Amino acid sequence: MAIIHPISYLNKLSIMKSDGGQCHASYLLISIQLSYVMQLVINMLKILCTNAAWQRRKLGKILQDWRVIYVQIELAFRKDFGEGSSISNGDNASARILKHILIWVEEQTYWISHRFLILGFELELYSPSEYCMVYWYLYVVLIRLAEKTHLKMTVSDGSAKQKGKKRKDSPKELARDAKIPPAISFLQCQICLAEGLTVVHVPFFNTSHILLAALRNELMVLQSPSPFNSEHERFIQHFELLQKACIPDNISYPSFKESTSYARFSTLAMYNYFKDAQKIAKEARSGFSNDPDRLAELRVLEQVAEHNSIALNVICGVGALDPSLKVSFEFIHHPCFATVVVKRS
């Protein structure tokens, strides 16, 4: 995770104020909030230096703080600059800087949410019967994280171009801009894997395409009713801290049920997201030639995608209702993304 210290933005605001820039009524309030953001960053770095169990416990608790500070800065921004303020407006540098900070804070909030969910797999907090809802929630968080990361990159790139005063982009520069950044490709690979392992509602087809949901609906696999907790109660138990912080907005147990209720192998076979993940992983390698750790993880993700694609073909070829078909999920390659193991008894 790349962290840009917000003190750089605070210094720029101070310089503009001392140089005679327009002083807004909420300047002092924003300065205090930015100081709070810096303290949140320090606390998060301290948490990331601890063991996995302590990390997950503390990251879940600080999510609310990150969300609150985002809302406070957003309200102050709207109060001073209005709803329609554009970050590309070169006449208002302070508005542009505050917008940068808003995007950055929201991206970090989704990164923390992603880390929180991933640690649940590493700590074995999820049972096989809960994988469907966990991968579904992970998919939604990954989508938002990719959106915010891409927005941050776009805004930063736009600011750099403005600074350089480029009047005309060459075809080579336009082609480079059109290329998907490696960081986004890395997230897209995970999105496809999560989408393949769980369920997403596709409004254009009014159906769902997911492995776990299809297994649950057609084979009754991974359905193990608990005498203590209903599925709804387990959903709340796992995602309560995310829900309290509204991460993401408008996500609830009913939306999860609606998304997964239509999943069938007949539609899943048509949309093999594992092949997409495998393709993205291969194409993204060149972008991480100087990052051996990320490159190694890409290779592992590619392995998971390849194995799961083959498993899906086997299930669809043999027939989902074959009573001799035994399907299990094992973390033999990646600690978070399961490998589908298919056997016939």
Automatic annotation (TrEMBL):
Pfam families: TPR_NAA35 (PF25789). InterPro entries: Naa35_N, TPR_NAA35. Residues 34-340 form the NAA35-like TPR repeats domain. This is NAA35-like TPR repeats domain-containing protein. The lineage of its organism: Eukaryota, Viridiplantae, Streptophyta, Embryophyta, Tracheophyta. One of its GO terms (cellular component) is NatC complex. It comes from the Eukaryota. Transmembrane segments: none annotated.
